[in-house]
Amino acid sequence: MKDKKLNKEDIKSLEDFRRKYNEIYYHINDILIKKTGNFDSAAVDTWVSFDDTRLTDDCIPLIKFENSKFIYSLSERGKEIERIESHDPYKIMFIIFENITSEMASDFELKNRLEKQDHRRILFSKQLELLAMVDKKWSEKQKKHLDKILEEY
User: How far is CA 56 from the centre of its chain?
Assistant: First the structure.
């Protein structure tokens, strides 16, 4: 993944988006298996839905493509609680993988927790490592966000 540049021109439809999402997801898992023997046990389709007919009230993001825009929609109890629209598919893809890698990093941190160390240091470091497997820019963007969190607390 790092060798290939993420190019929004490669994604022109919901099916293209889904294909790229699967490629990135399995790429991260393949690397985790090779490095640690561990992998994310959640199936690839448990993180997001591409199916309007699937009930997504359980806070699983629904990804749609309407009016030449990719849409990230999150619903809970029948109400949409978050909606992000973009012509750039990688803006939406980043949001998805920011969440996925956060969960993966949290699992890693729990298994590798060090007493007397701020648990966020391990968690954030692992998340940045996972995002960098896909795109260094994603990791750098998230690092700026996480550095602000560490400064504030």
Answer: 17
CA distance 138 to 94: 7
Residues 106 and 4: their CA atoms lie apart, in Å, by: 27
74 CB neighbour count, 10 Å cutoff: 19
Does this model's pTM top 0.85? My answer is no
1: three-class secondary structure by DSSP: coil
Q: Other CB atoms closer than 10 Å to residue 6's CB: what's the count?
A: 17
Alpha-carbon dihedral 53, 39, 71, 127, rounded to 10 degrees:
150
**pLDDT tens-digit series, residues 94-119:** 999 999 899 888 988 888 888 888 88
CB 71 within 8 A of CB 53: no
Q: In whole angstroms, what is the distance from residue 32 CA to residue 127 CA? A: 12
Measured in residues, the chain has a length of: 153
Q: Cα(143)–Cα(148) distance, rounded to whole angstroms?
A: 9
CA dist., res. 10 & res. 85, Å (int): 18
- At 27-63, the pLDDT tens digits run 888 877 776 656 555 555 678 888 776 655 577 899 9
Scan for tokens 């985790």, then name that residue: 32
